[in-house]
Amino acid sequence: MRLSIFFLFLFLCSCDPSSNERTITNMNAKTEKLPYAMVIHGGAGTITKANMTPEKEAAITKVMTEALEKGETLLKAGTDGVEVVEQVIHILENSPLFNAGKGAVFNFDGKNEMDASIMNGKDLMAGAVGGVSTIKNPISAAKAVMQKSDHVMLSGKGADVFAKEQGLEIVDPSYFFTENRKKSLERVKAKAKKKLTEQEKHGTVGCVVLDKNGNLAAGTSTGGMTNKRWNRIGDSPIIGAGTYANNNTCAVSCTGHGEYFIRYAVAYDVSAMMEYKGSSLENATNEIIHNKLKKAGGTGGLIAVDADGNIAMPFNTEGMYRGYVKPGKKEVLIYKN
Ligand code: ASP
C-alpha cells in the first residue's frame, strides 16, 4: 500500500515538469513568435515636453529612426544579433546627442571616461570595457574583449591599449569634447551641493535584439554620469547589472543611476525572474523598475526582448528615449505614455 502511494506520488511529480521549462513553454505558447525584434534606448531622465525643444526632439528622433532602420535591414538579412547590436550602437555613439561615444558626459576632472558591454545570449559570452578614453566606439572594444581575449572586462589604459592592438579606431580624447556636455558639467559643478536633475546626472545608449536564428543579444554604451569621480565605473559595463542576455530568457540593457543598477543586479534579475519564477518579460521588467528599484530610490529604465520577440521598455523617470522595430512596426517614443 505504502509503495503504491509512493509510486502515485512519483507519477504526479512527473506530470509537473520543472517550473522553468513549463513557464518558458507556456510563455511561448501564449504569444506568436516573431522572426526578429529590436529595441533601443538613448537614456532615461527628466525628459518632458516642457523641457524639450522641437528641434532637439526632431534631431533625437531622426538618429533613433536611423538606428532602427539600420537594425531592421541587418536583421532582415539574417545578420547575427551581436553584430546588429554593435552596428546599431555605433550610430548612437557617433551622435553628439547621446551620452555615449562622441556625446559622452564629462567627469569631475573635465575628462570623458566611457563604459560599454555586450553579451551573446546563445553561449553567455560577454565582453566589457570600463573607463576608456581614446576608443571612438567603446561597444566595439567590448565586442573585441568578448571575441578576441580570454577576459570579460578590461578597464582604463589596458582597455585602450587592447583596442588599439585590435585595430579599432583610436581618437584623441579631445574628440569627445562637446560644448553642450562641458556646459552641463559647469552647471552641475556650480550647484554641486544642490539636488541635480536626473538628466544632468545621466543618459546612456543600449540595444537588445532577437535575430532570425532565435539568438538574443544585448549591448550598452555610456559616458557614465556627469561630474562622476575619476575612474568611477557604473552599471553599463557590468554583466548582470547594465547588460544581460540569455537565449532561454531575455536580453536586457539598462539606463539610470548606475549604483542602484549594480546593487540590484537589474539586468540579471529580469532574466532570473523569468527563469526561476516563470515571470513573463512584462511582469519581470515591471517588478524591477516599478517596484524594487522605485522603492529603493533607484531612477532609470531598461529595454528588453524575449525569445518570442515580446518587448518591454519600462522606466520610472519622466521619460526615456526609446524605440523598437519588429515586422510591420517601427516606433520612437520619448515621454510617458
Ligand atoms: N547607468 C549609467 C551609469 O550609471 C548612466 C545612465 O544610464 O544614464 O553610468
* Number of separate domains: 2
How large is the count of helical segments?
A: 11
Radius of gyration: 20 Å
Indicate the mean pLDDT: 90
Fraction in beta strands: 15-25%
Helical residue percent band: 25-40%
Morphology = globular
Unique bound compounds: aspartic acid
How far is the N terminus from the C terminus? 62 Å
Strand numbers in spatial order across the main sheet: 4-3-2-6-5-1-11-12
CATH-derived architecture of the largest domain: 4-Layer Sandwich
CATH topology of the largest domain: Glutamine Phosphoribosylpyrophosphate, subunit 1, domain 1
| Computed structural class | alpha+beta
Number of strands: 12
Given as residue ranges, the uncertain stretches (5+ residues, pLDDT < 50) are: 8-29
CATH superfamily of the largest domain: (Glycosyl)asparaginase
CATH class of the largest domain: Alpha Beta
Description:
The chain is globular. Helix 3 (54-76) packs antiparallel against helix 4 (81-93) and helix 5 packs across helix 6 (156-165). Helix content is 39%, strand content 22%. It has two domains: 1-30, no CATH class; 37-335, Glutamine Phosphoribosylpyrophosphate, subunit 1, domain 1 (4-Layer Sandwich). The protein has helices at residues 2-15, 19-30, 54-76, 81-93, 138-148, 156-165, 179-190, 198-201, 258-263, 266-277, 281-296; strands at 37-45, 114-120, 125-132, 153-155, 205-210, 216-222, 243-245, 250-256, 300-306, 311-312, 319-326, 329-335. It is built from eleven helices and twelve strands. A hairpin with a 5-residue loop joins strand 5 (205-210) and strand 6 (216-222). With 337 residues, it is α+β, with helices and mostly antiparallel strands. It starts with a helix and ends with a strand. The strands form two sheets. It has an eight-stranded mixed β-sheet. It has a four-stranded antiparallel β-sheet with strand order 7-8-9-10. The structure holds aspartic acid. Residues 43, 202-204, 222, 224-225, 234-236, 242, 255-256, 258, 261 line the site of aspartic acid. Aspartic acid is lined by residues 43, 202-204, 222, 224-225, 234-236, 242, 255-256, 258, 261.
